[in-house]
Design a protein that fits this description.
Elements lengths: L1 H43 L10 H10 L5 H11 L16 H11 L1 H18 L8 E8 L8 E11 L4 H67 L5 H36 L24 H8 L1 H22 L5 E10 L2 E9 L9 H66 L5 H36 L16 H7 L1
Antiparallel strand pairs: 1-2, 2-3, 3-4
Helix pairs in contact: 4-6, 5-6, 6-7, 6-9, 6-11, 8-10, 9-10, 10-11
Length: 494
């Protein structure tokens, strides 16, 4: 019994020793490979760093923004360096509309969001086309039947060799998508600049309306003084004189409404500029806009300069690269798997190859979808060009009608109304007051001036619309979003 127990114990110890020896041989290579694999992963992987938002600090920075800050000056110098665009300055140092465009390019909230989104496309372009990470595989087996070497182990590292060339195409597609994002920013920058012009016109028109109303009230005050004197001496019935007091009260109430419009338009302008409601911007009113000089060949100008077409062309290039990538993915990549094997007490080196055969799938679905996407992008580009041409023709017709009204107002109606007012005022000063005639003359003069301001605002807005459709000049230095990316595209749009 004792001998049998000792024999059984010896057998167990022998099996344990064999097992430990086998496992040590099995795991030696796997441990060595895993060690270096873990070391590579540790050196190549990034660590997470939290970045909590601080709205209090952002609020303080937002409040401190100012059009004359050093940040704006540096940004303006960077934009205009080597450019041919002259930014006009107000003689009294107030903010001009040209300067406001630069402020909006830096601080506008929509542009900051667009640039943040473009950062995603840039990150994709920077790290696209990289090789797939190698794959470490470890296998362990034990034979259930008895034998001197029941344990088997295998470890290998698989590498995919991109012999199809798809990685380069992936890089090109990601770069094209990044360029499309930059052109989208360029288009949005132009829209913001145009929006600043429109907001500036609306604010300036409201300011002029307020000034005209104040002048009207001053003139009406002088007439009311005359009327009051006539009432006191009995030369004018009180019921007639009351009409002027009613008119004065109504226009004073109207002035409050116009002042509200001025405040609303100024806040809208501040929002476009990315400034706080309390920022001191001191804008200089400007309602007039010069008509584009290159409108005679609108089709060529739109094709060469339209930010919308340039964005769509960049998106079309992205679909081209997408189709090329889908076709290139039909071709297989080679996977090699060098490794180590322990079996039957012997150590072996392994080398495996795998290559998918493009027989059944051949990535046909992605190729068909990419082809359809390219056709859709081309259709969008062509139909958008047609729409831009039609919209430009409509803008020309609208401007022509407004210009006719504006010219007739300045050449005919305004002089007649001013003459009528001067004659009625002189008659009133001589003591012959025709109440209804004088009051009607005052109203017509005031309303005519307001109408002239409205026509000037509509005329300027129509011109801005034409400029929007034509796009910024090719030598425009304020092309922040696409610097260095648009030389070849200009040739394709001609």
């Amino acid at each position: 019994m004792l001998s049998a127990a000792r024999g059984s114990s010896y057998t167990r110890d022998l099996l344990r020793m064999k097992l430990e020896l086998a496992l040590s041989r099995i795991t030696r290579s796997a441990y060595f490979t895993g060690f270096w694999f873990a070391a590579l992963m540790g050196t190549g992987c990034q660590t997470y760093a939290p970045k909590p938002p601080d709205l209090r600090a952002h609020h303080e920075a937002w409040i401190d923004r100012h059009p004359s800050s050093d940040e704006i000056k540096r940004f303006a110098d960077a934009l205009l360096e080597g450019g041919t665009v002259a930014v006009s300055e107000s003689p009294d140092g107030r903010l001009t509309v040209d300067q406001a465009e630069i402020v909006a390019l830096l601080f506008n909230a929509d542009l900051r969001l667009a640039r943040a989104r473009a950062g995603i496309a840039q990150a994709s372009a920077d790290y696209s086309g990289l090789w797939d990470d190698p794959v470490l595989s470890v296998g362990l087996e034990r034979m259930l039947s008895s034998g001197p070497h029941p344990w088997m182990a295998m470890t290998s590292v698989g590498f995919t060799l991109p012999i199809s060339g798809r990685l380069e195409i992936e890089k090109q597609r990601a770069t094209a998508a990044h360029h499309a994002a930059l052109y989208a920013i360029y288009e949005q920058e132009w829209q913001i600049r145009v929006g600043v012009r429109r907001a500036w016109i609306a604010w300036s028109a409201a300011m002029l309306k307020r000034d005209v109303t104040l002048d009207f009230l001053d003139g009406l005050d002088r007439i009311v003084d005359i009327v009051t004197q006539k009432e006191q001496v009995g030369e004018l019935a009180r019921v007639q004189g009351r009409l002027f007091h009613i008119e004065h009260a109504q226009r004073r109430n109207q002035l409050r409404d116009i002042e509200g419009e001025v405040g609303e338009h100024e806040l809208a302008l501040r929002q476009l500029l990315g400034l706080s409601p309390t920022a001191d911007i001191s804008p200089a009113p400007q309602i007039g806009v010069d008509r584009p000089t290159d409108a005679s060949e609108a089709s060529v100008t739109i094709r060469e300069q339209s930010p919308r077409l340039r964005t769509l062309l960049a998106e079309y290039d992205t679909t081209e690269r997408g189709l090329e990538l889908a076709i290139r993915r039909q071709y297989p990549d080679l996977t090699i798997s060098p490794g180590y094997n322990y079996e039957d007490g012997t150590n072996r080196l392994l080398f495996g190859l795998s290559l998918p055969l493009p027989i059944f799938n051949r990535n046909q679905q992605q190729v068909a979808e990419a082809t359809a996407e390219r056709e859709q992008a081309l259709a969008v580009l062509e139909t958008t060009y047609e729409s831009l041409m039609i919209e430009y023709a409509m803008a020309e017709v609208r401007l022509g009608a407004i210009q006719d009204q504006y010219d007739r107002m300045r050449s005919t109606i305004i002089p007649m109304v001013d003459l009528q007012y001067e004659e009625a005022r002189r008659i009133a000063e001589l003591g012959e007051v025709d109440t209804l005639l004088l009051l009607d003359t005052l109203r017509r003069q005031y309303e005519t001036k307001l109408e002239l301001i409205e026509l000037e605002a509509k005329r300027s807005t129509a011109i801005v619309r034409m400029r929007e459709l034509l796009g910024p000049p090719q030598d425009d230095a304020i092309a922040y979003g696409i610097r260095g990316h648009d030389a070849s595209q200009k040739e394709r749009l001609k």
